[in-house]
Amino acid sequence: MLGLAGSLADAAVARAQTYGVDFRNTLMPASGGMAGTSVAAPQDFISAINANPAALTQYEGTHFTLGGGFAEATVNLAQRTPLPLLGVDPFSAKSGTPGAIVPAIGVAQEVSGLPLPTTVGLAVFGAAGGGADYMHVPASNGTSAYLLLLQFAPSVAVELTDRLSIGATMFIGDGYSSGPLLGKSVMTNAYALRGGFGLDYQLGDATWLGAYYQTNQDFRFQNQVVLIPGGQARDVDIGLPQQVGLGIANESLLDGRLLLAADALFLDWRSAALFKSIYVGQWVMQLGTQYRATDRLSLRLGYAYAQNPLNNSFGTSIGPIPVPGGIPSARYVQSQFAVVNEHRMSGGIGIRDLFMQGLDFDAFAGGMFPAAEAVGPFTSVSVASYWIGLGFTWHFDQSMSRAPGRRPTT
User: Residue 213's domain spans which residues?
Assistant: First the structure.
C-alpha cells in the first residue's frame, strides 16, 4: 500500500488543471478560450470528437488541426503529524514537477455518396497527465510519481434530418504510470476502451442543443509496484468516470456575431477505478462566449464552476486495499488527489485566414483560482494552476460564403 499511495500521487498535478483526472475540452484550441464550453456548438472539431460527436456534422469539407496546450500547477502539501507505517514525517513543501504538454491533433472529413450526410473524424489528444515530486524533501520518504493518459479517438456523425444529428466516438486509451512512494516501481503502460455517444439538434435559425454520454474507462497497470520488499508485484487500477453533458448555444445576437453557450456536466466518479473511494459525483457548469469582432478576428471568454469532488466520508481503503495507519494515512493518500478549486476562467482569440486562405489560428490562456483545504485533521493542500495553448487548422473544400467549419443555418 505504501507503493500504491505514491504511485498515484502523480495525478494531483494532472487533475489540478480541470475536473478530476479529466481535462475535458479546456485545453482544445478554440474551446480552451471558452473554459471548455463545447457541447452544443463546438468551435473546433476536436472538441466535438472528445465530447458530443454529433456536432461533427456542423463541419463541412475537410479539416486538419495541429495544436496543443501547456498546463502547470502549483501544489503545496503540508503534513503535520508522522505517519510511521507510510514512512512519512511532518513536512511542508511545494511539488517540484514541471508542467505538462498536452497534444490536440486531428482530422475531420465530410463523406459524400452516402444515403445520409456523414462526417468522420480522428483525433489524438491528452486526457490526463502530470506528476508530483517531493523527492527533495527527506521527510516525504521519496513521494514522487508520474501519470500520462492519451486518447486515440475515431468518430462518426450522421445528419438524420436538416436539424437532428447523432454521433459516436470510440476512445482507445493509452496510459503510462510510474513512481511509488516506497518500494520498487517501474514505468508501465495500459490500454482501455471507452465509448461516447451524442445528439445535436438545431432549434430555430441560430440555436443548438446538444447532449452526450461517455462510459467509464478503467486502466490496469500490471505489476507496477512491489509494496513489501521481496513481495509480489501488484497491479494498480486507475479509471476515468462515466459522464453526461448537456449544452445550449445561441448565435443570434449582434447580427449573428455573438455566440453564447452553456454546458452542464456530471462526472460520476463512483464509477471510476480507484477514484470511487476518493471522490463523489461532481457537477460542472461551463459558460462561454465568442464575439466575431471582424470577419477574420474572434474574441473568446469563458468561466467554469466545478464542485469540489473530495469525498469527506473517505474511509481507510483505496478500492479493495486497506491503507496502513488508519484514517490519518488514508487522508494523506487522498490529499494527493485534492482538486479543491471550484472557479476558473479563460480567454482566447481566433484568426481566420492567417498567412493564407483556409488556415486558421486559435490561442487561449486560462487559470484556476487558488484554493486550499484541510484534508483530515493533519493534512492540508493548496492548489493553483494556469494553462496556455494554440492550434493551427487547415480547412479544405468548404464554402467560402460562411464562417469556416460551420454549416449554414436552416
Answer: 2-396
pLDDT of the residue at 398: 59
Q: In the chain, what percentage of residues exceed pLDDT 70?
A: 89
**Domain for residue 409, yes or no?**
no
Looking at the DSSP bridge assignments, the partners of residue 35 are none
- Per-residue model confidence (pLDDT) at position 147: 74
* pLDDT single digits (tens) 105-154: 999 999 989 999 999 999 999 987 666 778 889 998 877 777 788 999 99
Tell me how far apart the alpha carbons of residues 87 and 74 are, in angstroms, rounded to a whole number: 24
Q: How high does pLDDT run on average in the chain?
A: 87
Categorize the per-residue pLDDT at 406 as very low, low, confident or very high, splitting at 50, 70 and 90.
low
Cell 454529433, residue located: 54
Q: At 331, which CATH number? A: 2.40.160.60
Q: Could you tell me which residues come within 8 angstroms of residue 238 by beta carbon, excluding any fewer than 6 positions away?
A: 8, 11, 21, 147, 175, 177, 218, 219, 221, 273, 274, 275
Q: Is residue 299 one of the residues assigned to a domain?
A: yes
**The three cell numbers locating residue 20:** 478530476
pTM: 0.91
Domain count, the chain: 1
Using one digit for the tens of pLDDT, what is the confidence trace for 141-193? 877 777 788 999 999 999 999 999 999 999 999 998 876 545 566 788 999 99
Contact present, 169 and 195 (Cβ < 8 Å): yes
